[in-house]
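User: Quick one: structure for sequence A, then sequence B.

Assistant: Sequence A:
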Amino acid sequence: MESYRATRSQIEDYFDRTAVDAWSKLTSDAPVSRIRATVRAGREAMRDTLLGWLPADLTGARILDAGCGTGMLATEAARRGGDVVAVDLSPNLIRLARERVPQRFESGRVVFQEGDMLDPALGDFDYVVAMDSVIHYNAPDMHEMIVAMTARARHGVLVTFAPRTMLLSLMHATGRLFPRSDRAPQIKPVGDRRLRRMVAADDRLAAWQTGRSARIARGFYISQALELSR
């Protein structure tokens, strides 16, 4: 997966050299611009959606937060009793997460770890959640990432992707007007039907079914969640 490795390197570089300060503010209570406020609201709504698809009581469950950022979803899962492994490529985002979040909760815990969310050494999980962490990869790579996640999940995989919409295409075209050094890695939209067809056609995913789907649109934040279960 050469294209996967190239994109992964670009994402790691962006978050550690360009975006860490903005991301720190975005995932806190600090004042932000109106545009970033819509992104914050959208992410909060998406996080609530994904958490709503997980069991209310996660006691004894092992959860992978794949691409955890500063750890907000991992925190809530641990509060429900989950044993959470939260992984991100960015050392700076992992540092922020460790500073903000206690390791142990009343009945669960969370361990923050720098690295590749597809690393088999992380072990197996009951649920894998990948919120906005595959949106920069092309559809074939995204598909292979989902296959890798399901190979390590016993019950469910929750993943979000950038849906193919006119508004999102316009936003991407506008973003290309900014200097290259200021740009985030390009988001790669994919159609919901195409992604479902790719899953359905893959024999490696024969035991898995696509389930619930939800699109969250808040200003400059547009993302769609998809549930896979067996």
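Sequence B:
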Amino acid sequence: MNTPLLDGPARPLESVHAKFIVELVLGIDNPRQTAIAPQQLRFRERLMNDIMAQAQLRSWSMVDALSENPAMRVGLADKLASTLDPGYLALTKMGHHLHILQQKGNETPGVLQLYATTGERFLRRAEHKQRALSRRGLMVQAGEHSEQVFTRWHAGSYSGWSLAGRCFVALEELRWGAFGDACRLATGEAKALLMDNLRATATQYLAQSINAAPATRHFYHQWLSTPVTPAPMDHKEMLCWLGSACDSERHPVSWSVTQTWQTIALGMPRLCSAMRLAVAMVDEIFQEENFFTVA
């Protein structure tokens, strides 16, 4: 029997619940959805079953029914959002997408009303979170979150992934949490400062992971090799799912780091330093047009 993913590679990650709930909503009438490899379909089914069990919603674990029923997807997302508190980014993504679906008017009046009421509820919750973040101080929250994530990296919480994969995981954790929220809500000057600090810190930790200077170049395989760990395929599939929003042309480094079942992207340097990789992933993950899109 497979070990639950939430007891394995997902245990140290706070972004998993948010991304999973958002995928439920953005999977409705989404032209960006493309064919998914069989192993990723199996992984998503396992993840759904694990999250349903954790949230005590096993009766909702009907993958085929969910894929064909928009109302069920919205209802499940609403229940999970109430139980798991996905955060500002997830709530905003879902609220905006449901508003778009409601405006399209492609469903029955009952489903369109569900889109409207649930979307409004998500956006109201996002507004409450925005005010709370601002009261506590965006830069303070960003700093505390960044320190927390990089401390986990240093302590080995992400050691089941490749060296570059650890960096990607840390950046995704930051994107979905208080650090990413501060980048979206802060002034341009404050955001630039956060991004500069993030590039420097990610470079430092990635260089330390390979025991080299930040500018020392290594063959890309050294950065992408998955370590020998218990359930290595679970870690590889989790990384692939976390990076499912990446595109080989717009995010060539992040795509190559996460989609290891594919040939590496043309834009992935074959010889690359910690600085080159970290800066590229920060810029790809936090670029403005990617802030509100999820595969």
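The beta strands are 217-219, 271-273. The longest helix spans residues 109-136.

User: Thanks, that's what I needed.
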